[in-house]
Write a structure and sequence with these properties.
By secondary structure, the chain is α+β, with helices and mostly antiparallel strands. It is built from five helices and seven strands. The chain has a four-stranded antiparallel β-sheet. A three-stranded antiparallel β-sheet has the order 5-7-6, with no helix packed on it. A hairpin with a 6-residue loop joins strand 6 and strand 7. It is globular, with a radius of gyration of 19 Å.
Length: 147
Amino acid sequence: MIIKMNNKNKDFYEYMGRAFGSRVIQNQTNDRIFDDDSKMWYIDIEDEKIISFISVSNNVIKNIYTTKDKSLQELLKMVKKENEIGSSTVTNLYESSYKKAGYKVEKNDSYKNFLIIPLDTKNLACKIIIQTQEPFFNHHSLERDTQ
């Protein structure tokens, strides 16, 4: 079962409470997990246990964890569909899952345990063109003023 929630949801800590401060997750991902107010969480739960989660804040992937790659790939596709993901620094443990979910990844020489998911400027440029042209054609006349 996949659920999407933030830390204001009533059952949030029932699902995610064990992940915060977990040394197992921290040691595996080389990342600390925090429940910041700005994060939206995508969580896959199976048999009342977390299988995978991803947090997103301001279109940046912040935290990732999984015990099943297929589950993570499903969450990554959902995140990509629902968000304009900007440049994100992510753990390198799940590199193959990022690629299988359609993300580009770049090595990061500054951080040996992390990768960069770069901003997809191709899709961004297309959306900027569409967004800037539509209002122009909808609100401005192309006829010449003859007065």
